[in-house]
Amino acid sequence: MALVEVQVPDIGDFDEVTVIELMVKVGDTVKAEQSLITVESDKASMEIPSSKAGVVKEMRVALGDKVKQGSIVLVLEAAGAAAAPAPAAAVAAPAPAAPVAAAPVAAASGPVQVFVPDIGDFKDVVVIEVMVKPGDTIKVEQSLITVESDKASMEIPSSAAGVLKELKVKVGDTVNIGDLLAVLEGIAAVAAPVVTVAAAVAAPVASAPATAQAPVAAVAAAVAAPAHAPGGTTVGLPHASPSVRKFARELGVPLDEVKGSGLKGRITANDIQAFTKAVMSGTAQTKAQAAKAPAASGGGGSELGLIPWPKVDFAKFGPIERKEMGRIKKISGANLLRNAIMIPAVTNHDDADITDLEAFRVSTNKENEKSGVKVTMLAFLIKACVAALKKYPEFNSSLDGDAIVYKNYWHIGFAADTPNGLMVPVIRDCDKKGVLQISQEMGELAKKARDGKLGPAEMSGATFTISSLGGIGGKYFTPIINAPEVAILGVCKSTMEPVWNGKEFVPRLMLPLSLTWDHRVIDGAAAARFNAFLGQILSDFRRVLL
Ligand code: CAO
Question: What angle in degrees, to the nearest 10, is found between the helix axes of 377-391 and 524-539?
């Protein structure tokens, strides 16, 4: 195996360029012509390819380094090479600067045609941005469009000054040297800038001999101002290499919404991946998604045919303070909205007599005082619900298209109020656990939720959820189903009430229950039976054993 030094090839009229992206690392196997680094001048960005296939043994450049033609990028152990070729031969030879009088001389007045100048060895490059519009007054060398190949992006400047009458290309068109780009109404006699297009490329191409036609005022690198002048003004496109832009386009990622982590805020392929992951996991939204999600954005709703969310300048009516919502609130908000809108939900309210159960709970806690585990009413409710879910299995199911999936496990979620917003930890296999163990796990999970330490696994897999406001107050409420579950039980504060026992009114501790259910899966009668059964268990907990 031979070691080969891969050098920066002829990069046209650029003296020194900055390394802004390393696309390989030591140990990587690279193919011939695979891009190794991205460099950037104030005129263009370009990727430098490998002249050989092999394994990267040593990187000789770092981010921020200045390189020029001949600088060693890295050392490769060339695949199958008997002997290292001379470094010069190992380097791709891009098209050298090719001074070409591509632009016609601008007339003092009258129509002037602007053509695509010699853009090196590129064919069929895609127009990715049009920077001017008819009616604009154009200066000589002002960028008109941005084109992009798979190796470089470049702006095409105007060869004349004038008022833009007609644009002959649009975004998505492919163009080649000599194509008519625009027609200007010339406003002044301008010496035609003979455009020297430094083939701002790394593509290994055969050197095209310069058809020198006495470059009058050769404008170096007519690839013009880059889409992103590094450290300078951004001319409309995000700061990213052509291959990253292509990657973003393939995934449909809006590049202008991606935050760049590279040098000078440059967007890297990793940034695109991270953005995509965040959007897919629901932790981030594109602007387009936000516009469609009224809950998340406080606006939109057009997809439901609703009138737009009211936009009010609250400051007109008094002092205000605006605070962005936290991540958890945003995620749970979007879920709650979907569930509220998409589920035909009905809520049944009922009361359960928990007089004896509460007395039992209090005495148990007295007996267990030293154990440190406090038995909560919610733990009894979980056990009671498991019994009801077993008797009425449709409440422990999920909809899957036209099928109902019945689950033979009973994992119960409970809503926990945390400083960051509502979270729903899940206690697994509640059918196999006693009230003490459930109480203990609930305490631990609730603490974790409040400390922001709950893992995704601890919040997934619930088959039914209980939302208890009993420790706070209230009478009844209408909880929103936690899809893909089909029912949720809301519990409020128990109060002593006069209850008629057939002979007289007696004081009983009554617990208000609110059961919300998905009418696609559950009927009203079943819901009433579920609540009645739950009430029976809570009034005499021995029934759990039956
Ligand atoms: N009726 C009367 N008192 C009740 C009660 C009820 N239904 N439920 C609990 N209590 C009492 C408890 O006995 C306790 O009293 P003591 O301190 O005197 O023993 C007190 O209220 C506080 O209970 P708790 O709230 O700490 O414990 P819990 O087991 O009832 O609830 C948890 C735990 C995590 C569910 C709760 O802390 C919580 O976060 N609740 C809010 C849930 C929520 O936000 N739901 C709304 C979702 S929809 O937006």
Answer: 130
